[in-house]
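Subgroup meeting minutes
Present: P.N., E.W., G.H.
Scribe: E.W.

1. P.N. recapped why we're keeping a running log of single-chain structure predictions: easier to compare across weeks, and new members can see raw inputs and outputs side by side.
2. G.H. added today's entry (264 aa).
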Amino acid sequence: MLGTRRTRGLLALVLLVTLSGCTGVFGGVSETDLDETPPEGDYEWDADADVHVTIHENTTFEGVYDAEGEELELYRRDGFGGRNPLSVSAVRYQYPNGTVINGTTLAQRGAVDESREAVTIEFPEGDVDGDEVAFTAGSSAKRFALPTFVEGDYEILLPPGRRASLPIFGRVSPAADRLSEPDADDRVHATVSEVTSDSVVAQFYMPRDLRILAVVLSVAGVVTAGGVAYYLRKIRNLRARREEMGLDVDTDDDDFGRDPPPGM
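Output recorded in log:
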């Protein structure tokens, strides 16, 4: 009995602490993730925009944000109006003099905390103009979407071979001021000025997908037209046979009503 009570007490304590969010049950950002190497070896620290986003083919993206204020909260919105922490890795911080520190050093000099709603990065020196923070996180195959953590000018690099110039299939929201021609790496640069909206979205496509879709629609159109022609021909043949058999005899409406009713 004593062992059972003790077990129940421990389970209740774990449940209470878990629900209160006071333990690492939900997990923080591990040192391994914090110090992971960025996908392309380094971040675009020299970009002119307040936020520089590079979207990769492997459904990840790199984000470089101006360090405004004293901290940055990273999260995604769920379908119920709530927030979930953004799963980040390869965290870096650059001082105005160009010195870059890794994620664990940033956590020591400032903080990198994860709650049930967000990952919060506290900057080492508070509100310092010119600092930048960068991280890597997951995206999706054809769509990038995140809340607007930092307002200002955005530069978004689409994955190689992707485009966003055809409505319905591709778009940038808020509307891009400019979509560049593909660069040497076959990337399109989208620039958006003075972003103040709640979120930033980039939806893109591959031109070959549109060609495949066009072929599929063309084949479907030919098949549909052939089917309609086939059934129209069948209907005409059936009508001709009925006329030959005398089943379709037109009746003159004027013949009706001339004779009196029976018995008259």
